[in-house]
Amino acid sequence: MSYQQITSAARQFRPAAPVALEDARETLVGVCGSFELSAFGGADSITGAIEGVPLGQFDAAVVATHVRSVWRDAAMIRRDPGRNLFLIYQETGCSVIRQSDSEHLMQPGSFHLVDSAFPSEFRYFDAVTRKISVHLPREEALRRLGQTCVGGLAIDSADPLNAALEAVLLKLLTAAPDAAMKLSDTLVELLGAYLRCLETQTPSQVTEKAALLQKAKSLIVWRARDPSFGLAELCEDLGMSRRSVQRLFSASGETVSTVLQDARLEIAHRELTLAPARTITDIAFASGFNDLSHFHRCFRTRYGVAPGTMRKRASSAA
């Protein structure tokens, strides 16, 4: 199962289009409850499409937006108490979810369980992203899933059950009503199985290091557009020595430079398909590269074609 398959199945949903910020806010509140959102540069309009959809026995929301951030604070919770757990699936683009003093980098194919009874924040990068949010009634979800999900938690994308959740969600997007009712129940059962596995695990240095690595990667994606950002700046942000950070990444077979380069290439790839008016040179430099020849070499190695060819293909498919 790949996120491209989810994307293909989800093309029934409305594409993002220009909309007034206030109208987008009103729609978001109507579909998801009390949330606030802000646009890049303080603009009074965004590109977006927010709609509620039924997914079997649950309500769901499809949120495609180009915004700076979306958040729900304590005052909003007092006015509109949290009645749902949101099982969030990142279909396209990247974002960072912050809840209960933890951050999770959401990439295509990632899941995160957000508890609407606790403050949360979604931070975005400069591109349209789309999430599918399955709304699990909180009281019933806690009865079935237990207390592990209180306050929200990230779903490990490397866990085999993540792939199972993704497969069931794909079926839900295209299933007939009768089948969708059974599939939505299966989705909760899989989530429950994942949480029960977590409950039987003993906290260890391994899980602590995994959380620290995720935080480091979130910082890299967040700051990738800055051409001066590198290992030294990451070490400063993490409060760790250069050697410790290098060991952290090498334990997973990665390096800071390769993760940073991949993040910049993903930004450039999105911009090439979403911003046809911008030049390739402008996109390369805005993505954090400071050498155009190096950008072209890296892009061709990663995607198998030159940036210009990639843009032409995307334009032809539109």
Could you please describe the fold and organization of this structure?
With 318 residues, the protein is of the alpha+beta class. It has two domains: 3-200, Sandwich (Jelly Rolls); 206-317, Arc Repressor Mutant, subunit A. Helices cover 49% and strands 22% of the residues. The chain is built from 13 helices and twelve strands. The two termini are 24 Å apart.
Give me the CATH fold name of the largest domain.
Jelly Rolls
Spatial order of the strands forming the largest sheet = 1-3-4-11-6-9-12
Number of strands: 12
How confident overall, as mean pLDDT?
Answer: 89
**CATH homologous superfamily heading of the largest domain:** Jelly Rolls
Determine the structural class based on helices, strands and strand pairing.
alpha+beta
Can you summarize the main beta sheet?
7 strands, antiparallel
Number of helices: 13
Q: How would you describe the shape?
A: globular
Organism: Tranquillimonas alkanivorans
Protein name: Transcriptional regulator, AraC family
GO molecular function: DNA-binding transcription factor activity; sequence-specific DNA binding
Keywords: DNA-binding, Transcription, Transcription regulation
